[in-house]
Amino acid sequence: MVIKNQIYVVAICGSLREGSTTHSALSVALTGAEEEGAKVELIDLREYRLIFQSVVSDESDYPPDVHKLKAKVKRADGILLGTPEYHGSFSGVLKYVLDLMGFDEFEKKVIGLVGVSGGRMGAVNALSMLRTVGASLHAFVIPAAVSIPHASDAFDANGNLHDPELTERVKMVGREVTQIATLYNKRE
Questions:
Q1: Does the pTM of the predicted model rise above 0.90?
Q2: What domain range is 53 assigned to?
Q3: Which H or E run includes 146?
């Protein structure tokens, strides 16, 4: 069997906050994907000029950054979605971005989920809702997802998790996305 190409995994950060723990968590997950041989990219939504989906009547009227973002996600073999949990759900920023995309970008893709929360319950509600979104877009959402409680205390100043076991769990999300995407991309 021959692998089509090097696996490409993108991570979409559902937080715009400077020093975001969501960003740090996705960086750790992408390290796991790199360890499996993937080419990786962390998409920082602060670098894109985006609009609300219903502002234009036709997708051809989207600003260039929307097309650039959609193309990256469409080209990806694996997608990591990271979000803080706000009020029992995933972030509005991530919802906003997901609404700009659809089956063209997500169908038959492998998705891994990482959530952070300031509280002790973690981001379990946000991750559950993102699992539903992924299934609705006909993606394969890996069973393992990681919820990081007390996120503001979980990371050091360099964005590394204090807990080595939690670090391995977050890396495993990136590894599994890459491993399953590799299986999807093999041809006989």
A1: yes
A2: 2-187
A3: strand 140-148
